[in-house]
Design brief:
The complex is a heterodimer of chains A (about 550) and B (about 120).
Chain A (H helix, E strand, L loop, with lengths): L2 H4 L23 H15 L4 H29 L2 E4 L10 E4 L1 H24 L2 H5 L2 H17 L3 H20 L4 H32 L4 H9 L5 H18 L7 H5 L5 H26 L1 H27 L4 H21 L12 H31 L10 H4 L1 H15 L7 H13 L3 H27 L12 H4 L10 H19 L1 H16 L2 H8 L4
Antiparallel strand pairs in A: 1-2
Helix pairs in contact in A: 2-3, 2-6, 3-4, 4-6, 4-12, 4-15, 4-21, 6-7, 7-8, 7-12, 8-10, 9-23, 10-12, 12-13, 12-14, 12-15, 13-14, 13-19, 14-15, 14-18, 14-19, 15-17, 15-18, 15-21, 15-22, 17-19, 17-21, 18-19, 21-22
Chain B lengths: L1 H19 L4 H22 L24 H32 L23
Classes of the chains: A mainly alpha (about 550), B mainly alpha (about 120).
């Protein structure tokens, strides 16, 4: 601005970083930039729907590659910070990529790539013209921003960005079922983010700062007081609602089965995990003393969410609605690690609970996305998504049946797939935290989900196709079957990719467990995070 | 000043929650608007209201000389207003479309996505 020219004598070095940022410093913000650029370009080319795939898939590949580069850098050098506009912390908005956030962002980008590939064969030209891919990228921009930001108000903004993108995806097609589901999803998520905003307002009033590193620094030497408990409890309710933890989970089974399968897959994989990630970030890094007093409530929430999810899955007839409850059960399992994060420096496996929670969350992102995509293929092949009418699917495609079996085993937590190892860590953590009943709840819900999974496989794949007519024929129930059919190798490829990830994480869990252990340590002891934001001399 | 504003926030919140508990979508919509306004006022109050002097640094100085209004909460509120307004616009259209297509404004009667008589899954193999 012109003002700075007339008063060049003002010394800004206390507020601004010297010199321009190097090109490599922009890496933490790059995933968001890629998403918004690609989304904007496709919005401009709205009517050229044939081009969307050619833009979307390379952009998603680029996004995954950027996240992998960032992950490599963060794993090697520790958290990376970019201060917007070159302002010093805590004045500028910080983007801080630490290991936990980068892991989530990377796996999220991989899942989005799989969904993008699946969308090529399952989204009609009309829905592309209404903006399927722009919405997808808008949402991914919000998701990446939420995982990488280092500013609590900025986190709120990214939540809203991903929410408005998800609204667009949810109602695309405007079938009756979708409108019904969208009403519930939109209102409850709006109330959830409003609670988040309330808590953030109080947090600002308390600390006078919004930078997460600055809050973590100041909260560490705060006396335990009533005000901070209010804030912590508000955050717990807000993020518990986003993550669909019991008793705030009603919106998820009401809406996740209504849009296209690929949209369900994306939502089930990513959106609830953003809530979980934010809860981990706020309760375990910013308000750690308050978390210790909330641990008992968190443990109950975890146990009840797991059981409600597992029992709900047992009671469902529709394949996708069954999966909705499996998502909830997985959220409960992650909550176990938030309730019992484990102490640092406890022998060889410090922070085993939080490490298990992060591992399980990453596993759940991949597996749930894979399951919903596979459910899309299975529904198309069987001509119905009701377990009463499905059957004999293994005859048509043995490879597909095998992939479904791997995914169902993984989601039930059976070895040697990726769900087993984090559950082992979580059970050990709950015993170490003096809550053996919570460990028992993990195993019991795992058992119930195993029964539900076995029922899916036995009925839809193993038995022969039932002869009887469809029991209840309502047009509304089958209206999601119109549109392009996800068939052939193009639909199998993304599922196969996700199955390979599940297999890799299950057979060689050490590398991922090593990463999540470092990530968990970085959250419980944010020294490196603070150093990255404030530099050597804070 | 803060005490009076807190009272206004409390009234806005209670009215908003009352409206949100209704089963009619249009009243819930009004509830979300009130809730958004209540939150904006809350952020404003939480940022303290010491003075109404604008925070402008005088010519030639490099810092503020007197107590001024806190500009940061106002920036936050501005962001929140834009977001809540756009959400309200979206929800309004969604509610109207749902009313047209589903023929009801009563959220209890919206059972298309979760039909009431679903029955049990096959219990035998």
């Amino acid at each position: 601005m012109a003002v700075s020219d007339t008063h060049a004598a003002i010394d800004a070095s206390a507020a601004q970083l010297p010199g321009a940022l190097a090109a490599a410093d922009y890496l933490p913000i790059l995933p968001v930039v890629i998403c918004f650029l690609a989304g904007a370009v496709m919005l401009i080319l709205r009517k050229r729907t044939a081009w969307h795939g050619w833009i979307a898939i390379p952009a998603l590949c680029l996004l995954t590659l950027t996240d992998l580069l960032l992950l490599r850098r963060v794993a090697g050098e520790g958290p990376q910070t970019m201060m917007m506009g070159g302002w010093r912390a805590p004045f500028g908005i910080a983007f801080t990529a630490d290991l936990a956030g980068t892991l989530f962002a990377t796996v999220g980008a991989m899942v989005a790539l799989a969904c993008g590939l699946f969308a090529l064969v399952s989204i009609s030209a009309e829905e592309r013209r209404y903006g399927f891919f722009p919405f997808l990228f808008l949402m991914m921009g919000g998701v990446s921003g939420a995982f990488l930001t280092g500013d609590i108000f900025n986190l709120y903004v990214w939540f809203e960005v991903l929410l408005i993108g998800s609204f667009g995806l949810l109602i695309l097609g405007s079938r009756h079922q979708q409108l019904d589901g969208a009403i519930k999803y939109c209102f409850l998520n709006l109330v959830g983010t409003t609670l988040f905003l309330i808590a953030t307002g109080y947090l600002y009033g308390w600390f006078g700062t919004l930078n997460m590193a600055d809050i973590a620094r100041k909260a560490a030497d705060q006396p335990a007081g009533g005000g901070l408990y209010t804030i912590a409890a508000l955050y717990l309710v807000a993020f518990g609602m986003k993550a669909a933890g019991f008793p705030l989970n009603a919106w998820l089974p009401a809406s996740y089965h209504t849009p296209r399968f690929v949209v369900s897959a994306l939502f089930a994989g990513l959106l609830t995990k953003v809530g979980v990630y934010a809860l981990i970030r706020v309760l375990l890094m910013l308000l750690a003393p308050q978390q210790q007093d909330l641990a008992f409530i968190l443990a109950w929430v975890a146990g009840l969410t797991m059981m409600v999810g597992a029992l709900g899955a047992l009671a469902q007839t529709d394949l996708r609605r069954l999966l909705n409850y499996v998502v909830i059960s997985g959220i409960g399992t992650i909550f176990v690690g938030i309730a019992a994060p484990g102490a640092l420096g406890a022998g060889g496996d410090g922070a085993v609970g939080l490490s298990g929670a992060l591992f399980y969350a990453l596993h759940s992102i991949v597996v749930m996305t894979g399951l919903y995509l596979a459910a899309g293929v299975a529904t198309d092949r069987a001509g119905s998504s009701s377990l009463h009418d499905m059957g004999g699917l293994w005859r048509g495609h043995v490879g597909f049946a095998a992939m479904m079996l791997v995914l169902l085993f993984a989601v039930s937590g059976l070895p040697p797939f990726s769900g087993f190892w984090p559950k082992l860590m979580l059970v050990r953590a709950s015993f170490a935290a003096g809550m053996p009943w919570l460990g028992a709840a993990v195993l019991a819900s795992g058992f119930l989900v195993t029964i539900a999974s076995a029922r899916v496989f036995a009925l839809a794949f193993w038995r022969s196709k039932p002869e009887h007519e469809a029991m209840v024929v309502e047009p509304a129930r089958y209206e999601h079957l119109d549109g392009p059919k996800p068939r052939g190798a193009d639909a199998m490829l993304p599922i196969l990719g996700l199955v390979c990830l599940v297999l890799a994480a299950g057979l060689w869990p050490q590398w991922l467990a090593g990463l999540t252990r470092t990530a968990a340590a970085g959250i419980l002891d944010p020294g490196a995070y603070l150093h990255s934001v404030f530099g050597a001399a804070p | 000043m803060e005490a009076a504003l807190s009272l206004v926030v409390a009234i806005l919140f209670s009215v908003a929650i009352y409206m949100l508990l209704s089963k009619h979508i249009i009243r819930m919509l009004l509830g979300t608007v009130l809730l958004g306004n209540g939150v904006n006022l809350l952020i404003f109050t939480a940022g303290r209201v010491p003075a109404i002097t604008p925070p402008i640094i005088p010519d030639g100085a490099d810092h503020l000389e007197a107590v001024t209004a806190n500009p940061l909460p106002q920036a936050l509120i501005l962001t929140a207003i834009v977001i809540s307004f756009s959400f309200f616009a979206f929800l309004l259209v969604l509610a109207y479309r749902a009313y047209q297509d589903l023929g009801t404004d009563d959220s209890d009667e919206m059972r298309v996505a979760e039909p009431e008589e679903q029955g049990l899954p096959p219990l035998g193999y």
